[in-house]
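Exercise: predict the structure of this protein bound to calcium ion.
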Amino acid sequence: MTQDEPQPLIIDTDPGVDDVLAIVLALSRPDLVRLEAITLNFGNTTLDYARDNVLRLFNVLHAHVQQEGKGQEGLKRSLSGSAYRTIFASKGAEGPIGGEQFTASYFHGRDGLSGISQLHGDPFATSKSIPSPLVEDATKPAHEIILDILRNNAPGTVRIAAVAPLTNLALAFQSDPETFCRVGGISVMGGVLDGPGNTTATSEFNTYADPFAAKVLLHDAPLHPVLQDAKRNACGYTGSLPIELLPLDITRKHTVPYARLCDDVDQRGGILRSFYKAMLSQPRRVTNSHAPPGSPFDPRLYDNFEAHDPLAVAHAMFTPSLFSRRNGSQQTEGGWKTEQVRFGIETVGELTRGYCVVDRRGLGSIKLGKIKPNSSAAKDKGNGDVEVEKPTSGQWDVVVASPGPAWFAGIFCEALSI
Ligand SMILES: [Ca+2]
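Solution:
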């Protein structure tokens, strides 16, 4: 792959309203990305609804480009199948690797899209035939399809935008770590490091829904023999996987007014705008409800759509992969900035499942498992020198800046045809 060729991209997703908009963003720019696969994971909704939602989206997009006629050349090219075919891996993980299963119906609605499957007359119907450029593969688990794509592309070239619980990706790593290490970069929407959660007081939904999967990729993977020995890794690196995390800390700064997405002002109509308005109705109600009662409603503060998943897909589209940057061939550009942060993921906390426990002690390069203070418990045992802390955290790349919320809103709204 040369620098001018579109990057092969997999979107691992649990659609979900912001997932659907993230997919449209990727489809709008076939000059930048070749959408190799959409792989479904449980999360915002169940797999059955997630599959229906993808089919509804593509049917609406086809109807939209027929209605509109002119413009949207990128979207048209992607939908025609002339730019690429997209494997639709609908047999994804149905539940987390560990712990109880949860969905986000409180925010996305039971069907993941504000209940559009129950609308009178089913105006955004799913279909029996699979719309182009999708080619459904319901025979293989999604994690095997991810591995197939990594095998069939040169090492370090495939990007993954992970905008769901990380179950499929963790299963892929556990199933064939050598092949999984061929990935060029993984842009993960997940976690929150310095702020409130969006699902519990402490936790973001994706890390809450499957904290065990996050732990497999962030904590367990760097300790695996394949990532300890560069000769066993087709990309030739050791240490952590090429993951860059986009936590709520950055994604919630990237918003678009609901009024713009839902076409409140000029009511231009059309099937795509009607679809956006219908599927955003529940998240909009929930967001609006955060306004304090008894004061005048301020839409600038409480009527904004937080584009969590679209920002992660934008990161995968507009930045060189971490693999290529580690090799020094390309640098992060255009205002994107990444910093290393040391944290661990809580898996079974009584109140804190999915919490990212940031280590702010300034330990530098000290390995946590080597810290051996002379605790009273140790003295009681008579050896005076025992490990009191297992190495449960590591240092990972966290995206802390983008080219800016205004830049993002511009490219996002252009992609959405609004
Ligand atoms: Ca999602």
